[in-house]
Each structure stands twice: as C-alpha cells, then as structure tokens.
Amino acid sequence: MRLASVNVGRPRELLWQGRAVSTAIFKQAVAGPVAVQRFNLAGDRQADLTVHGGADKAVYAYATGHYPRWAEELGIADLPPGAFGENLTLDDFSEAGIRVGDRFRAGSAVFEVTQPRLPCYKLNLRHGRDDMVERMLANGMTGFYLRVLAEGTLQQGDGVERLASDDDAISIADAARLYVGASSDPALLRRAVASPALAEGWRERFRHRLAEIDS
Q1: Does any domain span residue 133?
Q2: What's the total number of domains in the chain?
Q3: pTM (global) more than 0.85
Q4: Among 14, 28, 25, 20, which residue's Cα sits nearest to residue 47?
Q5: Nearest to 157 by CA among 64, 18, 55, 52
Q6: Which of 21, 62, 145, 148 could be joined to 86 by an S-S link, Cβ 3.0–4.6 Å?
Q7: What are the Cα distances from residue 51, in Å, to 23, 95, 162?
Q8: Rounded Cα gap, residues 154 and 36, in angstroms
Q9: Tens-digit pLDDT profile for residues 26-82
C-alpha cells in the first residue's frame, strides 16, 4: 500500500436540519511532511471528543478503491480525497483483508488497527444526504481507525508497510458485522473479545453479546 493522500481538518460550525453542528469531517489534502501525534495528525482536530478521537481513534484510514464505487452509487463524477472524513487515503485495501491488531509503518510512524469506523449523522451532513450512514453500513466500506504506537512524520506518496498481523484476529469487515448485529457467530465474538488491540468499548459490547448467547 501507499499513502495516496494525507488529509486534515479543524472543527467548523454548520447548520444541519435546522440546528448548529460542530464538525471536523471536512478534511483537506495537504502536501509535504505531516507530524503524527499520539491523538491525531498535526493540523487535525476532532469536534466531539466524546465519540471521536482519543488513543483508539487517533487516525482514520480509508481506501482509494472505495471512491469509484461510491461515485457510481451516489451518481457523483468526482470525490476529492478526504471525502469520507479520513486522515489517510490508502491505495489500496479491503476491510476483509485488514485485521484488528495489524501494525503498519507509514513514513517514520507506526500504527495499530483498533476498530472499524461506525459512521454518524455527520457523514450525512458532509454529503448533504440523509442516507449515507445506512449506505456505508450496508456496503461495508467503513475504513478503520488506528492508534499511534510510534510518533513520527509521513506524507503523500509514502509506502505503507504491514509489520505484523495475527491470523486469529478478526477482520475489520467481521468486526463491523458483529457490532451492528449482522452476525452473531459465537466463535467470531470470542476471537474479538480475546483481541487486546480491539478498542475496549467494542470488546465490552461483544462480552455482553456472548453472555446473552451463553445464558
């Protein structure tokens, strides 16, 4: 893989369905070296830290391969990098081919995959539609979040090297299906709970699901 684009943005206030909303989902591609910090990239911020950001969601990655599929689905000729609020647009991956706990080096920074992205209404706001959340959950093109294991710098065009992967860990695609209830496979749930890299909120949700199944 390589970094097709590095994207950052700061919160701005917009009107959505008659109310003021603060959002940083509007990202812009940047050129040159960008510092990778523990909780975000330099020049990037999250608007609502109760649901965005933090160590487990420091950086959001999305696939270039999803762009033409979205363009066809939405009937849009061109989507700019960062159109889905991602910090790193990667060329290329599938959610089925990325596992929780996978470690990557981009530039001099090292990252660990923590969870899929579950979209909120701000994705609807970004695209001026009411159905983007439902579409993303249906088509599975969620991307994934990363925690920063080693700070450093990166820039557009850098290679992205997979340093480690655990064959027993669940894929990003499987994690998303489990979370939204599209799958209740007990074996997958147990593998998810056993993954120390998975964000703790997700592990707790899956523990409850297992307890319900086993009761």
Answers
A1: yes
A2: 1
A3: yes
A4: 25
A5: 64
A6: 62
A7: 12, 22, 28
A8: 7
A9: 999 999 999 999 999 999 988 676 667 789 999 999 999 999 999 999 998 889 999
